[in-house]
């Protein structure tokens, strides 16, 4: 067995790095430059944020390629790579999991990944066993499952357990607005079994940053505007309170949303496209919310009464 999984307080997401690179064609309408992303990496690494989360599904491998480029010059032991097998993209060879991993290793310019995830629970019994030979060979150090419910996590763990391995990480959508994994007991399960829970969409694509509100909606025509602009009025009380808590600590509402996810015992995965975003993560890492503060934010979130479950997610 390789040594147990460790991770920084916050992991860095590179979903938006998988854009086509064409001007204005980024997921967030922001063209990303090689020098800009290099700056992100240097600042993140020097502040101890050294776990990078990507996937073949992010821009059909482009995110992996761009990430490898940005990490050039850093020793492989100085950072961790997290990428994913997406069943919906499986090829029809004899071993689609191994094939997808090899392609990822090639794009990432490495001979192992620190965490390899089954991205969606298409067929746990079918895909999980294929990870065992790659754990044995060392191409994968740790296995994670993403968007899996309690029964699927247990089934994957049972399959790996028979070979002396285990599920060491769970990655689900988890935010103040979407606490399905907590209500289903997944957070408790992870805590009890020493499994690291990675929370994604902690900022709900910007809706919880305090940057947007009824008077300043998300850019029209973007996918996220369609999902979130209609609910911004219901979020105003929550984002105002987060902004107020942040102000007392020279931090932003977004930093408070991230600090909440850390306080809940999870490792938030925050998308970074600009070096200055790292400053917010440094602040979030240092914010200590009280139990009262956490309860107050959750009550405001519950009062907003909205469901931000993604189209790709099933009920937890």
TrEMBL record:
Domain NADP-dependent oxidoreductase as annotated: residue spans: 10-301
Annotated Pfam families: Aldo_ket_red
GO molecular function: oxidoreductase activity
GO cellular component: cytoplasm
Keyword field: Oxidoreductase
SUPFAM superfamilies: NAD(P)-linked oxidoreductase
Keyword DNA damage: no
Superkingdom of this protein's organism: Bacteria
Listed PANTHER family: AFLATOXIN B1 ALDEHYDE REDUCTASE, PYRIDOXAL REDUCTASE, CHLOROPLASTIC
Protein's recorded name: Aldo/keto reductase
